[in-house]
Amino acid sequence: MTTGMERLFDQLGHFKRFQACLYFAAIFQVISCGIHYLASVFLVETPKFLCDSPSNITNVLYRNHSLTSLADIWTHYKPGDGPVVVQTAGGDQWELSPCLKALRLDAINFQYEFFGNKTVESCGGFVYDHSEVEQSIVTDYDLVCEKEWLAKLAQPTFMLGVLIGALVFGDVADRIGRRPILMATSLCQFIFGVTVAFTGNYYLFVLMRFLLAMVSSGYLVVVFVYVTEFTRIKVRTWTSMHVHAAFAVGIMVVALVGYLVRVWWIYQIILTLSTSPFLLYCWKFPETPFYLMAKGRYKEAQELLDTMAYFNSLPPTLKVSELKDECDGELLNDNKQEDGRAMQVKKRLSILDMFGSLKMAGRSATCWAIWFIGSLGYYVFSLVSVNLGGNQYINLFLAGAIEVPSYLIGCIAMDRVGRKKTCAPALLLGGVACMLIIVVPQDIEILAIVLSMTGKFAIAIAFGLIYLYTCELYPTIIRHYFWSNGSLAVGSGSMMCRVGSVVAPFCVYLADIWIYLPQLIVGILAFIIGILTMFLPETLGQPLTSTLEEAEALGSKPNTKIAAVDALEMNQTIKA
């Protein structure tokens, strides 16, 4: 018979009406997180451009194309394939390139090739192709040529905000509760999201996006904890994995709105408003029963249990006093059985203990590598999808849509064939798919898109299950109602995840060297890490370990020590 806090799910339901309504209401705002994380794809889009042209143009030449207006040249113009030559009413001939322009001296005939002397000048301004991008941050502030680095800095700065937000709000949520953080970050997402559209200058734009990243990351971190504290182990894997699916829906929303709206500030407002209905009901969210019990707020906890029973059409027979007595009894028994070992391990456990032996050092390094490549690959595949050729909006939509079946398959596979046997093949598949891009001719765009989406599909599976797998690879110790040393492993792994997200935009910029270089880098790393993952122990069906010695013995011999630890701690530690 289940005892302790988990008994409330036996009496009130594992995922009945109350939990289901709360779950889908909470993850609705995760869509907003996916939106803001990927919105920069079109916010900072750089269209084709040339140096500003002189007035009174009468003729335009580009290769073998002869036109009368510069606006008509964009369908033929390819950056890096020669200048555009224009002639003014006064007879002057200019060669226009993206970052330079040259006046032909003593030109007689108006023709594309010219071997005479030229006077080269820097650009006083720029003209843009508005057929695809009517207005973006780049066109508004001329973030091209010597200012191109400012445009490329926007996404890494956002990801830095994601890292800081995860650290700040994860800790604050433990201090003041999950509900206040969910409400505050949701409101700030709306405020900062709208403010971004009216910044007026580049630096304020970057600052507002940085703050938006912090609160978006804060919501995403805390909502994982929130939804898992309202569900039991039988459905917790599915509910936590499919939080990622809501994030993927946000990517699809970005693609749809980007296709319909080509003015960046209107696009930003629409994206922000798309999840604003969440603000109308988030104030009704309750605090989680586990947090209330841990903080000694028993009256509120009892009211919540009665409300859950009412909504689930069950009699309100469960009493907080019973749960409290059982949890106290479990703690007392554990302390007697372990002779105080739990508290001793708690005191001495640090990040250095994750590398205390050669085996644990290899395990920890591999786990960190999976966290890193999961995040790096996820954002690289999403961000570069618009550069694969074909329709960029369809590509980005597919990059989000392909995640939904990946999480479904991942959930089934990790419980059927095991964690290691799901994670390692997924990384290997992603690596092979990406490395095959080397042999794809650049004119066969559809094949490159298929391989890239296959890589995204595989990486998403590994990225989705690494949370749970990491918790199971390290020891868990109970303190009061819940406390997990697994948080050390997940917390440090999550830091590597955030490092991957910060590195991802810089990796994407390598496409300027070769369009498929980002996927190739991710593919090689994923393949190597996939091989290393095969040396990790399998944890499916294994009891949770309570000491580092037991954790180290995983995979080498049967684990004879069955720790009386519920799987709640595993998911409780998702506090990036």
From TrEMBL:
Transmembrane region(s): 21-44, 149-169, 181-204, 210-228, 240-259, 265-283, 360-381, 393-410, 422-440, 446-469, 481-501, 513-536
Residues covered by the Major facilitator superfamily (MFS) profile domain: 102-541
Membrane topology per record: Multi-pass membrane protein
PROSITE patterns to which the protein is assigned, alphabetical: MFS
GO molecular function, one term: transmembrane transporter activity
Record keywords: Membrane, Transmembrane, Transmembrane helix
Keyword Membrane attached: yes
Cellular localization per UniProt: Membrane
One GO location term (cellular component): membrane
Coiled coil: none
Matching Gene3D superfamilies: MFS general substrate transporter like domains
Principal cellular location given in the protein's record: membrane
Name the UniProt record assigns to this protein: Solute carrier family 22 member 16-like
Biological source species: Sinocyclocheilus rhinocerous
Gene name linked to the record: LOC107732637
